[in-house]
């Protein structure tokens, strides 16, 4: 206590943002209060470390409650590094022996009580303790191994790590920066976190190659959103493009209005039959893509003659119902599987990606370990119960602010949507998401969901493959 009284007034001089050399600052304090530097450090250090733990555990509580998970990928890496720093500090001070996991988890409960006054009651989070436990086990197991890897790199580099080495050690071997610093006996490079952020930004942005310029065209009027049961419609051709991937053959048309669903949001496109006024025979729409505000309809054969002549011509389009139904079932099934995962596994489940083709669908979820056979079965059962309940599915355009107020950020499972209006898909009492795909009107139309397999595809991400509707029957028949 004596030393604390003397140290207190000078503690502010240790602000890392203000001093160039922290070690020197420590030295100066020790001199001023007439103590040895070792004595000051050994007395002060545990309290400092206790504050680090209190600060870091609060950060962990908030980030995990907000949907982040410790992993090697993206922001998950920060959660892992912060958590592992806490683990190492606990280990260094022999605090694990004293408190154990149960005591450690109590810290989070204390934070909750403390924060309730500001944010209100924390919602129940059934998987929180599990997430911490799994990460702790992983850290304990990999700690020695990672240190060995780091020591090997240090030897190779003759004691001097490059910035790349630091980043590899942190992101691939999960060693916190201050631990690397301790082992390699050099301070954390000043530009380390900036460089990490920069690299993340670079990988997040992939540039899209635009092959067709649609800027001069009016937006394709989306008939699907006006009436999702519309399978036949009339429209006018507004533009003809030469297919640059097919030797410039003229087989792409843009319409002023269309109910054909273009490939987007991880869902495959519709196909359709199409007739053009004054032209013999039927065309097939074999692909549809969205470019800018327009839907490009790719035809099975070329438009013959002078292409300018087709502009303004009337067309009649009839969408293939069987394909639409199968895609719609896989898409709606994805919402159902997602809701089931959240129900079975816990609120840390967020959608990390999805793909729906006629063959099958998959959903990527944020989860900290592989699924057990039992969990797979539970998810499948839950999904089929939702289907059998014949729950209504409502689709509506909502004001963005109003939708966020009503449903929260859980809306954005497929990523944040630009604009002031959202298309909200609500499976009553089960799941609400901002989503633009094709959906059934009742969960019953999905027919059946058969989980094919699940796979841990990267750290913190599990992929579930499943089939629905008629494809589920195909797969189940094949298994018999
Ligand atoms: Zn959807």
TrEMBL record:
Gene3D superfamilies noted in UniProt: 2.40.30.130, 3.30.54.20, Threonyl-trna Synthetase, Chain A, domain 2
EC number(s) on file: 6.1.1.7
An example Gene Ontology molecular-function term: alanine-tRNA ligase activity
Keywords: Aminoacyl-tRNA synthetase, ATP-binding, Cytoplasm, Ligase, Metal-binding, Nucleotide-binding, Protein biosynthesis, RNA-binding, tRNA-binding, Zinc
Enzyme class (EC, first level): ligase
InterPro entries recorded: Ala-tRNA-ligase_IIc_anticod-bd, Ala-tRNA-synth_IIc_core, Ala-tRNA-synth_IIc_N, Ala-tRNA_ligase, Thr/Ala-tRNA-synth_IIc_edit, Transl_B-barrel_sf, tRNA_SAD
Gene Ontology CC entries for this record: mitochondrion
Name assigned to this protein: alanine--tRNA ligase
Lineage: Eukaryota, Sar, Alveolata, Ciliophora, Intramacronucleata
